[in-house]
Amino acid sequence: MALKTIDALDLAGKRVFVRVDFNVPLDEQGRVTDDARIRAALPTIKHAIQARAKVILGSHLGRPKGKPDDREKFSLEPAAQRLSELLKQDVILADDCIGDGVKKLVRDLKEGQVLLLENLRFHPEEEKNDAAFAARLVQDSGATIFVNDAFGSAHRAHASTEGVSHHVATSVAGLLMEKELRYLGMALEAPERPFVAVLGGAKVSDKIEVIESLLPRVDALLVGGGMAYTFFRAQGLDTQKSLVETDKIDLARGLLERAAGKLRLPVDHVVAAAFKEDAERQTLPVAETPAGWMGLDIGPQTARAFADEAGRAKLVLWNGPMGVFEMAPFAEGTLAMARALADSPGTSIVGGGDSVAAVTQMGLADKIDHVSTGGGASLEFLSGEPLPGVACLREA
Q1: Which residues are catalytic?
Q2: Around Cβ 285, how many Cβ atoms within 10 Å?
Q3: For 32-49, how does the pLDDT look when each residue is reduced to its tens digit (9 = 90+)?
């Protein structure tokens, strides 16, 4: 994948529009509770500053719906404050992303200064990829270069992720975008072997395309989480009240047949009498689910087997929890997977909210070769789907 990148350009004195992903969680006081996405954008922002660019950042935050309190609830002010702390320099926050106020701030912007535009989604034209709005973003910012560093939004054809590329002469990838594509690309383009993929989460339907894309490429595909129970039902097991997508049983059966033994399922699981943190629970073989009970995590035997597979891999990719990670009694399988990838001597890649949360919670993120910032984007990329926010950056 031939990509133009920001470090190949002369940025001195130029206005550069950088699409970042500052869609960060905030507490009730409006403070950033997890700055991982802001930190992930620092290499690109610092590079632009050091190259003496006039840096104009654009991002969305949440899903504003035009309500009266949206301007306060979804303002990027907390992100601007945190970025200023991390950069150790002032970050100017505009009161909008287009308009006369933005034009004035841009006119006054000096080399090496950073301007953060207000939430792009305050304008519904952003998500509609409205051509006129995309043109305004470029015109009012005065940008001559577009840098997309928002991998987490690259699967969306929005005005700021794809539309603006049609209104500037130069569109390139940021350093985070390049890193995401390089690591995730390892799974699709001649992966080192053994290549092991670990997939979890609630539903097969969320990962169908990823499974179909990875099956021909992997040496082993380890499946945990709620999605495993649809495969169990396809094998004729009585899953009792465990989560099963009944309309996907035939699909699961077909995937098992095509997998030719590559697709590995849990052999034991933690079952509970109810979907509650304090519910009665026990660990049993997968074929032994008590009447009325449900499986909520992989068991220790499965965790060890999956960890052994990960330990033998030259490349291991993990996306999705092994159980109901938000409930402590059913989080151990996911935490065990986090430890396994941290200990793996091969290249390790982690994506997906709960998987990333597990390695972060355990302080293991720095032992993972790549922790992806993209949830839906990483899944679509691994499915082989073109990402609009990437396709517009490719060299002709």
Answers
A1: 37, 203, 353, 376
A2: 12
A3: 999 999 999 999 999 999
